User: What shape does this take?
Amino acid sequence: MDADNEIPVLREGFLVKRGHIVHNWKARWFVLTPDKLLYYKYEGGKRDSCQRGKILLKDCLITCPFLEYENRPLAFKLQTKHGVDHFLEACSREERDEWAADIAAAVNKLQATDGGKLMSQKDSAESRLQNINLSKVLDSMYDVHSGIKLSNHVEQGSTYSNCFSGSAVVDWLVFMQLSLTRGEAVTLASALLEEGFLRTVGLRSVEALRTASLSEQFMDDSTALYSFPDSFKKRGGVKSERSRSALELSGKVVKRGYLLKQGHRRKNWKVRLFVLRSEPDFLHYYDPTKDDISPVGGFSLRGCLISSLDDNGVPSGVKGNIQGNLFKIITKSDIHYFIQAPTHQEKMNWIDAIREHT
Assistant: This one.
């Protein structure tokens, strides 16, 4: 991550992203840099050190707002130069518009500074491949009968299952006549990797992704391992068993945003969309990955106690490798809620807003 730390960060925060293959929605931590949009998973209250994917911004098209999702009015769309659509949802109209504006500014800056670059042979190959639909290539790769074969591989003493080598991918792309040469196949495979349609497996391919130039991130090598992304695995959702009264949800929305909440039983941390309402004063939280507009939980703020938790060590009652910015709410019925904000300032903003309505 040392190289990533040197890259300027233009904006970061939670967004909900639609999967490419299985069209479910997942909350991810997004980091906007001058030329790409990176996204990470949160595990146990801490951001995963390894990125889950990235969206290259060069020649991207932005549609904001994107109104085709009736139950997701806060969504916007990014279409890459390869024609791959990425659907993202913010927690509010203000957040959505700010994200879209910052991304558009980065795209425009890339276009303004692109004129002086010389085209190499690999650039020419990439240009010829721009009209290829990467989603269809991935579907063909995943085909049970004619797709690439998944198997177990050993790298440096470790065994990896359900994966394939870089050279196997190149062989397959050439055999299927999706590429004319092995060089073009590497370029196409790099595009699949850049779009998150393939993922690195093992140390060799991970290191290549971190250190190689943009056009050489995919390795035509029998010891470099890759696989399909986790988004191929369907996840079942558990619907809320409790319904909220219309009175609770009738109040005026005062504040909304993405926060992490520790579960009461399993003590695992999940991203939730929190909505603070007044008259009556309630705090509800939603599963942002579901289209269901009903909250999965909530409580009255009357008689609640809210306090900021120190970032030194792990407070009593909290589990996981926490990154700080914690606060606790104790309801009138003595139920304890542990919540994590993405930044210290956001934590203080939420504490101040909730205190005004307790």
